[in-house]
Amino acid sequence: MPLRLPDRLPAIDILKNENIFVMDNSRATTQDIRPLKIVILNLMPLKITTETDLVRLLSNTPLQMEINFMKLKSHTPKNTPIEHMMMFYRDFESMRNEKFDGMIITGAPVETMDFEDVTYWDEITDIFAWAKTHVTSTLYICWAAQAGLYYHYGVPKYPLEKKMFGIFPQTPVDTKLPIFRGFDDVFMMPHSRHTEIHREDILANPELTLLAESPESGVSMVMARGGREFYITGHLEYAPNTLDNEYKRDRGIRDDVDMPKNYYRDDNPDNAPVVTWRAHANLLYNNWINYYVYQETPYNIDEIK
After folding, report:
1. Could you give the angle at the alpha carbon of 107 between the alpha carbons of 103 and 109, nearest 5°?
2. 3-class DSSP string for the chain
3. 152-167 confidence digits (pLDDT tens)
4. Model's pTM, two decimal places?
5. What is the pLDDT of residues 63-73, one digit of tens each?
6. Backbone φ and ψ of 70, nearest 5°
7. What residue numbers does the annotated binding site for substrate cover?
8. Judging by beta carbons within 10 Å of its beta carbon (0-12, 13-18, 19+), is residue 73 exposed, middle or buried?
9. Mean pLDDT of 34-48
10. How far apart are CA 230 and CA 246, in angstroms?
């Protein structure tokens, strides 16, 4: 599909080399098409990597999308050049009066902190509240999923003795839901987190629907408001080498991080990872965009409420 991306975004050249059709805004403005407006609040440290991972998945539908990047005014990233942030990202305040068909809020490296101790908690909860009336469907990932469930529904998070780290099989609870259209009975999902949410807390809240879970990695997907909110505790967007990079970064430094499970060929970190999640990752993002964004959003985007 054609993706409308900001001119000179690094992901454009990367994805073109992968034979993914993207176009910059200069070309897209010549086409008389109402694209889906997607905004990504990218809280991950390596922002260019996360941009590329997410855009790669969004590229797998026949719909045209315009991708926008949002940043927090109350937080300055340390691992991304300020020039990149100034060129491709906008503060939430400058976007507050806009509406979007879909939104993705990523994880963040703050999960061991109490939510209220996060320096940008006030600003991000303002965004959570705004999304309810300005976005047709919002996808919360990893820490954002825990933070969104806590803010909207009072669901707590719990610390883990060891990092939940690896690729774990997930079972859909109701395969008839459109989000699982085309799914197998079991699908794999990368996880990389030090905290978890409990299924009992999800089941106790009638506003929440448990979508998928694993005997080992626990709750992996939750839905609210009929699909206007999705909470994913893992990282289906991860590239093949992401867990490998994290493991090599932490090995010998942290004592709460073991080798990622179900990841390396023959469980040998000297071997390459075995990619087992990519097909379902593409399918899930495709289903989200089609059934919960495109099919639900009004043609006049100002009518979102």
Report:
1. 150
2. CCEEECCCCHHHHHHHHCCCCEEEHHHHCCCCCCCEEEEEECCCCCHHHHHHHHHHHHCCCCCCEEEEEEECCCCCCCCCCHHHHHHHEEEHHHCCCCCEEEEEECCCCCCCCCHHHCCCHHHHHHHHHHHHHHEEEEEEECHHHHHHHHHHHCCCCEEEEEEEEEEEEEEECCCCCHHHCCCCCCEEEEEEEEEECCHHHHHCCCCEEEEEEECCCEEEEEEEHHHCEEEECCCCCCCCCHHHHHHHHHCCCCCCCCCCECCEHHHCCCCCECCCCHHHHHHHHHHHHHHHHHCCCCCCHHHCC
3. 999 999 999 999 999 9
4. 0.91
5. 889 999 999 98
6. -110, 145
7. 163, 192, 249
8. exposed
9. 91
10. 26
CB 291 within 8 A of CB 179: yes
Q: Residue positions in the annotated binding site?
A: 163, 192, 249
CA nearest to 41, candidates 50, 31, 32: 50
Token pair 């939940």 in the structure block, residue: 164
Q: What domains can be seen in the chain, in order of their start residue?
A: 3-303 (3.40.50.880)
CA distances from 179 to 125, 167, 169, 189 (A): 26, 20, 17, 15
Task: Supply the residues annotated as catalytic.
Answer: 142, 235, 237
Assigned token pair, 38: 């997607």
